[in-house]
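User: IS30 family transposase. Structure?
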Amino acid sequence: MECYNHLQLDDRRTIFRLVDAGRPVSEIAAHLQRHPATIYRELRRNRHHDEHPPFRGYFPTVAQGKAAARRVRGAKVARDPLLASYIVDRLAAAWSPEQIAGYVRRHRLAGLSISHETIYQYVYGADGRRQELWRYLPRARRSRRQRYARKPRGVHIPLANTIGERPPEIGERTSFGHWEGDLLAFRQEFGKANLTSLVERRSRYTVLAHNSSRHSAGVMAGIDRHLRAFPPALRRSVTFDRGTEFAAFVVLKARLDITSYFCKPSAPWQKGSVENSNGRIRRFLPLDTDIALTSDRELQAIVDRLNQTPRKCLDYQTPYEVLSAQIALLKTG
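Assistant: Predicted structure:
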């Protein structure tokens, strides 16, 4: 397989000499054994523009500097102070690079355009590291790395109501009212308090509930209390993993007519919506949080922030907007 090599300073000096001698692009390309488009692109992108005619034109050292600057990680952001300032502001507001890029593209803000990958490159580039922008990312990692699977959990729930028995509409997200649930635990030295996280699959709307322990009766009571506030059409099913905290799932069926489904053993990724949401929540409530000292008001502020952040999977609408629109339809119907 043939490998492409960038033009080097010696190549650019040759281009300058031949252009200055009036040679056509086709001849320059043949001399350098390059495609003519490469030479045209080089002359267009790396030409020096100056208000004084004698200083305009193609110069090899200037062209080399321009080309090198474009290859710096996150250079597009670094070259635009307005764009850099906006990105830093949104990162500090807990938006992900993908959310920032999508929102800018959807709303055409000030004619700006950026990809999430360029934002990541800026964050992990020299300027971003100097500002420690990695602290604002969802996982707050100092360097990018691959994600690893969660450790498998034991089988505590019988194989009845497995995820394979769910109606196709749940997996395809074609209807509302289907939730995923999980438990967010914290360091043991802070006690047994924890949180239940719930995510509505279609809208990605998030709910958080305090629990004093992992006892299933209390966990289910919290789910009952929070989902009861929604119309019946918006609380039809919930998918859990096989943790013991969800063993009393029959309570939800009896009280709210909610059907429970369970992931296969050692497969929590089958409830990917809530797993993804948990990662977002950890930005505000890391493992070393004493959750017993976190008030319901503080918890609600975090939930509101999550539900009012645009999501790529919703075409950069917010979960609140999507679920509110569905509630309005139910009221008018």
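The CA atoms of residues 77 and 84 lie 5 Å apart. The chain is about 40% helix and 10% strand.
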